């Protein structure tokens, strides 16, 4: 591997002192124009980049924002795209970070922040954090926290309203036996989506069959067992509303394996509108959660906090909408 250029290498190649190179790259006065141009040319030729730690020790700012995720999956990837786009016209860089498999689970945010804050990042966005009381020493913004808004500035989306839209769509198509494949019981988003499912039934004067509510845990593989149980019932559901797209796609996998046609024998609705949802066969009807906009809103809020500006709205809840595609139809 090629050795990384140091500030000493730049100084030797440019024929100047290390302190002169430091002044040039930090934009300080007192350096002749010709000398500054020569140093800048050598910096480009050697692809020299100052250390983030060294930059932090000098200026107490790194101009790096951390975005912390428990794992890189479709939901967090879309939020990452939004944060990166929001930073395109700023002088901030983005550091995406996830701990090892051993460091995930409850409290993973504290462990990650302890490694990054102080010298590497000026602030951080935590995606779906399990806790929001992490004492990081840098400004923090939470996106879609497990337990809902609680202390930290927060961005999320309207899970309740989106679930009402999804369930109402199936009821208006004529479905009466509608199953709900929930997320995890400890997540506010899952609780709100079940509440929306029940609210739409109540508005239509329909009862919810408790046998049609199962846990899908927001994962495609975890949805298999509850989907098999639901679709094996003697009076199986004619539609399934899954609390996220991964669970919906897992349900469609099971339906296909059992010889059921989607949407002829079974209508399926998801939640999130991740890119994969349009590539299923048929394309998945889902609730659009503005994930990239959520990421951008988190960046806007975080930069204001880092600049010491007042943040009047510390909880931003963005609207959701129904995207009707090919996986839903009236029951046979």
Strand order of the largest sheet: 2-1-3-4-5-11
Shape estimate: elongated
Q: Order of SSEs, N→C? A: HHHHEHEHEEEHEHEHEHEEHEE
Distance between the termini: 64 Å
Radius of gyration: 25 Å
The biggest sheet amounts to: 6 strands, parallel
Helix content: 25-40%
How would you classify the helix and strand content by structural class?
alpha/beta
pLDDT averaged residue by residue: 88
**Percentage of residues in DSSP E strands:** 15-25%
Tell me how many strands there are.
12
Low-confidence stretches: none
Please tally the helical runs, counting DSSP H or I stretches of 4 or more residues.
Answer: 11
Name the descriptors:
11 helices, alpha/beta, six-stranded mixed beta sheet, about 325 residues
Write a short abstract of this structure.
This protein has 332 residues and is an alpha/beta fold. The protein has helices at residues 7-14, 18-25, 33-46, 52-59, 74-86, 108-116, 159-173, 188-203, 224-231, 245-257, 291-306, and strands at 64-68, 93-97, 123-127, 140-143, 154-157, 178-182, 213-215, 239-242, 267-272, 285-288, 315-318, 321-323.
Description:
- The chain has 332 residues and is an alpha/beta fold.
- It is built from 11 helices and 12 strands.
- It has helices at 7-14, 18-25, 33-46, 52-59, 74-86, 108-116, 159-173, 188-203, 224-231, 245-257, 291-306; strands at residues 64-68, 93-97, 123-127, 140-143, 154-157, 178-182, 213-215, 239-242, 267-272, 285-288, 315-318, 321-323.
- A 6-stranded parallel sheet has the order 2-1-3-4-5-11, with helices on both faces. The chain has a 6-stranded mixed sheet with strand order 7-6-8-9-10-12, with helices on both faces.
- The longest helix is centred in the middle third of the chain and has 16 residues, at 188-203.
- The chain is elongated, with a radius of gyration of 25 Å.
- The termini are far apart.
